[in-house]
Amino acid sequence: MSIYGGLYSGVSALAAQSTAFGIISDNIANVNTVGYKASSARFQTLVTDGQTSTKYTPGGVIARPFSDPERQGLLLGSTSTTDLAITGNGFFVVNAESAPNPNQDEYLLTRAGSFVPDEDGNLINTAGFYLQGWATNSQGVITNAATQDLVSSLETVNIGGFNSTTAPTGNVSTTLNLPATAATGATETTNITIFDSLGVGHLLTINWTANATDNVWDYTTTITPPGGAATTVGVAGTITFNGDGTLQSIGAGAATVGTAASTAITIPGATFGNGANASTVNINWGNFGSTSGLGQVSGEYQAVTLNQDGSGPSSLTGVDVDQEGFVTAQFANGETRLVYKLALAQVPAATELAAQSGNTYSLSAGSGDLVLTEAGQLGAGLFESAALESSTVDLAEEFTDLIVTQRSYSAATRIITTGDELLDEIIRVKR
Questions:
Q1: Alpha helices, H only, 228-380
Q2: CATH code of the domain made up of 169-309
Q3: Which of 21, 143, 178, 214 has its CA 20 to 30 A from that of 380?
Q4: Beta bridge partners of 222
């Protein structure tokens, strides 16, 4: 019985070392795979019968693969802002479908963050899995926060739906001089382009008229849409200057020296003539008691600066991801917009996750349930943009293990050949 048991023990040793050899081979093959976690063979004894003081029954050995999917790999810099790495605990949530059905399509976990936009703008990694996150409003608030703990709240991160953006004008600032020597009734004109909510440019005109009273100018404002006629907006106003040319007051109200001077003009949507929303534009004249904005001294009318904070349609130039996982779209006009927040997934026992193709993991009976968290919360790690997590394979260690495995496999074959010789001796006894 012991001879046969020894033979089977040798066979199990061969199988166990073969498993170890396969694990080592896979590690070496994936030494440059982004986010790959090295596996190792852990050997376990097999006992077929209890050992006594006079009897021993060989059992053998079995090799079980072990891997820690959350083991931190070194971070490597990248030139792409959509290359992402995780520092600390957690996984990216991915799906093989660009528009996953939570009831049919399985959500998987990975640390491989080499994402690029596909033809539709969806972020996809080299294994063909789509990155999942929560949609946000422009203030970074998750739009479906009430259900964000469920995978059904996630959607594929898409940066192709933000090809252009506009910013309606809300503020206009001026630095200009009205001539102090202008005759009564003399006029000057200040023109500046502003933008409506659709990104269409309109001409805002401030029409100045010298009042019969010294140091006083009357003004009106008009809007001229492209190809249209001028329409008066707001109400007529009066601006009074001090004897030194500094701004004294707007209208009949008193003003405090050093405070900001401004006038709000409401522009009805119908004035734009294109379906744009109504708009309110604040014209900032500078400070009372100062010539930093609007002033009146001798000389010609002069507009030094005319600035406004709106913009017409602008194309997407790139995206950025911060450590908290906020995805920000960046536009050519300098505008930015928060569009997504990436989700981090955690499980109670990450080492029990089931490895899948594409350097991904799925839940198993021993891993526990998936928990969606935000970066930096509940023990979750942080995101790092323009970086990739390298493989955790140590080539020196793998080649050393390869030598040990080779020798162990050779030794196991000697068990079988020796057992064969022992059985041959028994057969000779019969002869």
A1: 269-272
A2: 2.60.98.20
A3: 143
A4: 205, 232
